[in-house]
Amino acid sequence: MVVGTMGGWYEESLPAVVIGEYAGLGHVGTMRVEAACASGSAAVKAARSSILSGEAEVAMAVGIEKMTEVDTPTTVEMIGRAGSFLWEFENYGMTFPAYYAMFANAHMSRFGTTEEDLARVAVKAHRYAARNPLAQFQTEITLEKAMHSPVVAWPLKLYDACPITDGSATVILANEQVAKELTDTPIWVDAIGSASDTANLNRRSDYVGLQASVEAARQAYGISKVTPDQVDVATCHDCFTIAEVMAYEDLGFCKKGEGAKMVREGETEIGGRIPVNLDGGLKAKGHPVGATGVSMVVEITKQLRQEAGPRQAPITNGIGLAHNVGGTGHYAYVTVLSRS
Amino acid sequence: MGSLRSLNVRFDIPISRTREFWEALAHGRLVTTRCVECGSVTFPPQADCPKCMSGKSEWVEMDREAALVTCTRVDMAPTSFSAAGRYTVAIGETKTGLRVLAWLEGATPLDAKPGSKLRLEVRKGERGRPYYVFVLG
Description:
The complex is a heterodimer.
Chain A: E1 2-4, H1 15-22, E2 31-33, H2 39-52, E3 58-65, H3 72-80, H4 85-90, H5 96-111, H6 115-129, H7 143-147, E4 151-154, E5 156-157, E6 167-174, H8 176-182, E7 187-196, H9 211-224, E8 233-235, H10 241-250, H11 259-264, H12 281-285, H13 292-304, E9 319-326, E10 331-339
Parallel strand pairs in A: 1-2, 1-3, 8-9
Antiparallel strand pairs in A: 3-6, 4-5, 7-10, 9-10
Helix pairs in contact in A: 2-13, 6-10
Chain B: H1 19-26, E1 31-35, E2 41-42, E3 57-61, E4 65-74, E5 87-94, E6 99-105, E7 117-124, E8 130-136
Parallel strand pairs in B: 6-8
Antiparallel strand pairs in B: 1-2, 1-3, 4-5, 4-7, 5-6, 7-8
């Protein structure tokens, strides 16, 4: 059993141990993994690796976070410290919205992406979260409301940012033989690509995309032999609206610089080319840091099984993709799932 | 149920192998590391070269002139910057291709566009601790 969590803002120091005892897991062997906001995907990868290696027949990946007690400026501080502490936080107080705002500013300058384009991503997230009974925000918003919300880090506003959330999600993985015994509708993890990048933002090659996402996607597509146009449904890491726009480009759903156009033309809505974040995404479903990556796999599993109810995407190829970023592209995981 | 126990921790940052950076900064100079073996210049400075793994480095003066790459203004500040007001943070690139992240003093993202000329200057902050900033050049 592998627990993905960032931790530090809740009372337990050893969450895997507490969960193991509560679930009566005895001596199975547990650990906790951290990849910031991609900790959940790291847990899925570690659990899957234990099965691929033959060490385990069944493995559980659990993603958790509890952030309730910490006030907003302190949460902003604890996440802001998650870059390069001495060089970016100690003297300059960088925040996570500020990091992504730098990407947004660069993307807007270079490709003409607008603040309205970004607000459209939030409107889409809320539209689908309103159809998800487990979402944090189950209300639709207007473009005007998003555009007129307070600035958090220019050009990003309150409605460009995901909320602070409590949550958890779990997936049970098994080898092929056991999976077929356990269920008639197994969903296969065809590939998990993972990649990383520098701690300091000044050492990145550019600010209009995340190289870790590009590399993780290249691995995942290569191993699964899937191409972006075969993906029926996806979750993209939308911690900020600009992150979803860049994800479309980094994952090859469109060319670099055309992410905002996909949003404007509804290509990532139900009925569009690749529906994205039909659970409401991090923006409106919520972003319980370590739980997010696991919940993405849960959502794609529901979608591929056609159990997503009013937010169901049309499934033709039986292929889904989950894209999960940790930090500002410090970590990235791309998981390709398929229905048999 | 609220716990009755709380924690308050202040960290010490280990800088023994890049102490020269902070000493030079206290004298108004900006220096960084260059690998003696392969010549790679890194910022932030580091004692071991990430390109060739050499542990031999020397200190070189940094170029003060830069061009803006991207920037933002922080309106929602973290707890320990709550007294700082709104501040603009920029990434600038020097002529030699070294990038630096620092506050951009006296400007907002509306005054500074990619390519805008910047200059690095040294300031004294809380408790006399030196730091570097960009100003519009």
